[in-house]
TrEMBL record:
Protein name: Epoxyqueuosine reductase
Listed cofactors: cob(II)alamin; [4Fe-4S] cluster
Binding of cob(II)alamin, residues: 68, 146, 170, 181, 228, 253-254
Quaternary organization: Monomer.
Organism: Luteimonas notoginsengisoli
Cofactor: binding comment: Binds 2 [4Fe-4S] clusters per monomer.
Superkingdom: Bacteria
Domain 4Fe-4S ferredoxin-type: start-end pairs: 188-220
Length: 359
C-alpha cells in the first residue's frame, strides 16, 4: 500500500463513497458497494468447511489460514473493501438446457465461453483505483480478482451486491447471479453499505437439480462431488461413480444457476470479450476431442479453459463421450485416442469405450 499525503485535508467520505459508485459504473461495472472487514461468522463457516475436508484437493483453500477472512491481515492497513460486479449473462437458458440434453454436444460453463474475465476485470479495477486517486490523492489499496485469499462472496454480500444463495453463489434479487466479482482493499474509512438480506425462502431447486448431489445442505457445497471442481480443479482420475452423472459437461457446470428463479431478472450483456469463441456454445464433443495440444493452446489463448491443460480437457471430453449416445462418430472419436500417451486420458477413454460395448 502507498502512503497518504501528509497533512492533506480529510476527504468528505460519504461524498467520496457516492462518487466511487458513479466511477465504478463509468468503469463498466454494473454493481458497486462498500463493506467493512469484519467476517466473524463467515470465518467460522470457512473453518468448518475446511475441517470437514469438503475442499477436495484445493490445498490453497486451507493454506492461507485466517487471512482469507481477515482482510487487514492479508493487506495491513485495510479498513474497507470496495466490491464490484460485472455481468456476463447471455439470456440463453433454453439454449443451455438444449445443449445439456444433446449428448453429442459439449457443455461449457457460460463464464468460460469467451475471454478470461480476470484480465478484463483487473484492468477496470486498476482504472477505478486511479480515478479514486484523482479524487483523494495517494491512498493505500490493492486490487483482487481471484488473485488472493479473499472471501469475495461474503464481502460482496456485506457490500449489498447480493445474498449468498443455497448453492453458495451470490444472487442479486434485481439481477440474478450471472456476474463476476472483484475487490479493491482500501485504507479509506468510507461509510459502508447495508448488507444484502437472504431471499431464497423455502426454494431448493438448486439443491434438487445438482447432477452429482454436491450441494449437500443449504450453503454447503462438497467440492469433491462438484462438476466444476471435477472438470477444472481436480487432477488425475475422476471417480467412476461420478462419471455417468457428469453428462456432457466438459468444463464447469451451470445447472444450479440455470434453475434459479432469481435469474429471470438477470441482465443480458453483449460485452465483446464474453462472446463465445470457437463455437464453444454449439460444438460437438467429437470436434473438440480432435484438437491437438497445439490447437488447444492456440484456440484457448486468453481463455479460462487453458488452465485445465490439454490432458485434462481430453479426460473431461472422454467422460462426456462415454455418456453420449452410441454413434459411429462417438465411437470413432474415442478409438482415435485409445492409445493416448497420458495414462489418465487413456484410462478414461477405455472406460468410455466400454460404456459403448467396445473392448
Amino acid at each position: 500500500m502507498s502512503l497518504p499525503i501528509a497533512n492533506a485535508p480529510a476527504p468528505d467520505y460519504p461524498a467520496l463513497a457516492a462518487r466511487i459508485r458513479l466511477l465504478a459504473r463509468e468503469a463498466g461495472f454494473q454493481r458497486c458497494g462498500i463493506a467493512g472487514i469484519e467476517l466473524g461468522e463467515d470465518e467460522q463457516h470457512l473453518r468448518d468447511w475446511l475441517a470437514n475436508g469438503l475442499y477436495g484437493s484445493m490445498e490453497w483453500m486451507a493454506r492461507h489460514g485466517e487471512k482469507r477472512s481477515r482482510p487487514a491481515e492479508l493487506i495491513p492497513g485495510t479498513l474497507r473493501v470496495i466490491s464490484v460486479g460485472l455481468d456476463y449473462g447471455r439470456n440463453d437458458d433454453d439454449s443451455a438446457w438444449d445443449t445439456i440434453a444433446d449428448g453429442e454436444r459439449a457443455y461449457v460453463a457460460r463464464y468460460a465461453l469467451g475471454r478470461d474475465y480476470h484480465k478484463l476485470m483487473r484492468g477496470r479495477l486498476q482504472k477505478l483505483s486511479e480515478r479514486i486517486g484523482e479524487e483523494v490523492g495517494a491512498f493505500g489499496h490493492r486490487v483482487f480478482v481471484d488473485s488472493a485469499p479473499v472471501l469475495e462472496r461474503a464481502l460482496a454480500r456485506n457490500a449489498g451486491l447480493g445474498f449468498i444463495g443455497k448453492h453458495t453463489c451470490l444472487i442479486d434479487k434485481h439481477g440474478g447471479s450471472w456476474f463476476f466479482l472483484g475487490e479493491i482493499y482500501v485504507d479509506l474509512p468510507l461509510p459502508v453499505d447495508p448488507p444484502a438480506t437472504f431471499h431464497c425462502g423455502s426454494c431448493t431447486r438448486c439443491i434438487d437439480v445438482c447432477p452429482t448431489g454436491a450441494i449437500v445442505a443449504p450453503h454447503r457445497l462438497d467440492a469433491r462431488r462438484c462438476i466444476s471442481y471435477l472438470t477444472i480443479e481436480h487432477e488425475g482420475s475422476i471417480d467412476e461413480a461420478l462419471r455417468p452423472l457428469i453428462g456432457n459437461r466438459i468444463f464447469g457446470c451451470d445447472d444450479c444457476q440455470l434453475v434459479c428463479p432469481w435469474n429471470k431478472f438477470a441482465k443480458t450483456t453483449d460485452e465483446p470479450d464474453f462472446r463465445a469463441r470457437n463455437d464453444l456454445d454449439r460444438a460437438t464433443l467429437a470436434e473438440l476431442f480432435a484438437w491437438t495440444e497445439a490447437e488447444f493452446l492456440q484456440r484457448t489463448e486468453g481463455s479460462a479453459i487453458r488452465r485445465s491443460g490439454h490432458a485434462r480437457w481430453l479426460r473431461n471430453i472422454a467422460v462426456a463421450l462415454g455418456n453420449a449416445p452410441t454413434t459411429p462418430d462417438v465411437v470413432a472419436a474415442l478409438q482415435s485416442r485409445r492409445d493416448e500417451a497420458d495414462p489418465v486420458v487413456r484410462e478414461h477413454v477405455a472406460w468410455a469405450l466400454a460404456r459403448h460395448g467396445v473392448a
